[in-house]
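Marked as duplicate of an earlier ticket. Keeping the data here for the record.
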Amino acid sequence: MRTIPDPLLRAEAIHNPKTAFVCDGRERTFGEFVDRCRRVGKILDDLEIGHGERVGLLAANSDTYAELYAGVPSSGRVIVPLNSRWAEPELAYALEDAGAKILISDQDPGGLISSVDRVLSFEDYEVRLSTSEPLDFADVKEDDLAGLFYTGGTTGKSKGVMLSHRNLIANTLHSQITVPLDDDDTYLIVAPMFHAAGSNSVLQCIALGICQVVVPAFEPNRCLDLVEKHRCSATLAVPTMVAALIEAQAATPRDTSSLRLIAHGASPIATEVLRRANEEFPGAELLHLYGATETAPLVTGLRHEEDLIGTSRGKSVGHPSLGVSLRIDASTGEAGEVLVNGPNVMQGYWNKPEQTAEALEDGWYRTGDIGYLDDEGYLYLVDRAKDMIISGGENVYCSEVEEVIYQHPKVLEATVFGIPHEQWGEQVHAVVVPRDDSLTDTDLIDFCRTSLGGYKVPRSVEFQSKELPKSGPGKVLKRELRAPFWEGKDRSIN
């Protein structure tokens, strides 16, 4: 496979009568799905959207989302998946930055109408599709741009990551090596498809003839019900979703014995969450995936985490996928920035040559993550370079503190970041969603002190009853929580 039409053509030839997607009680075979993908090109032709033009997509997870994700680039256009959790100004920025000619959406576009030439609702899309003729897929090349994936913006202004057909197909092959699936599997899509990780399975499952059960919006009880009903065997979720699934299963057990693989990624996961996942879903292999939008997204995988809980190897993110190379920008044996090279590495940032030059170095992508490789090639991540606290000249890595806090039985969610301190420059601050209102800051600080050096222990703790703010992919938006503390300061650590 070299371009996105290739897995579609394979599915059409080999898997035609099998069920490809289940969504909201609707089922579509591979033959029906590919036929609809072919009609996407005719719709865009009729709307005078030229080859190479950008097509915005703002919608919840669905089989229709999947056909547009695959069909738009297969027609020679560029798909621009938009984060449905963004505010209107953020969405408008992405559409205008991409120069999108059209927005296809399942919701009221509001003021976004002024950001594009045309808005096509899902209802109008269905009408047009029903009367359109299926076309041959475009003669696209490996290096043709397939999609612009805008970054979540947790560390700054959103950027359009340019992913080619080659990038996405390479990731499909890498995924099959790292996350091995077969045609007997049923895949549950719970992560948002607008994110590279959420759509990670789409092309892989299409090529292999695997049915995908799509959850429009994550709701743990509904997900578990679908696992039980459709005997789902594999899924990918961010750690916050994994934790929610654990809580829901513990409260109301379902028959989840069909689950054989639970992959997770996008952010670090606490050891206690892994331990509980192994208890609640004992038949499932736990698989840690590491990547970035800029790498389409898969870089490494750690298989059978359930056997490594509490071990030093279990703290790694595994080995790079076949075809992916890693390098640490530091002296041998020391932690430094992680660099990635391979056919999955982006072409660059859309209309941002300076940021592209900063991120790409002779084909190597600078991740901004700090890590090291052990003697057997396992990658260990210390933290993001921008998520490090310097207190009194000592480096404090947030993930290390968060790991300890999550071990407290009364903690449901937690995040750690630096806030200003006159003497030390920064101090360690924790924001915690407790399971039990009886938890106090003194209790938590004393608990941390038993496992962490004094300079790493939180000096202040903030409790809140609502869940921590998150991006669409489920990453905690530390920038939002941190900003009030740094307002008016000469230095910001966003």
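See parent ticket for discussion. The two ends are 40 Å apart (CA to CA).
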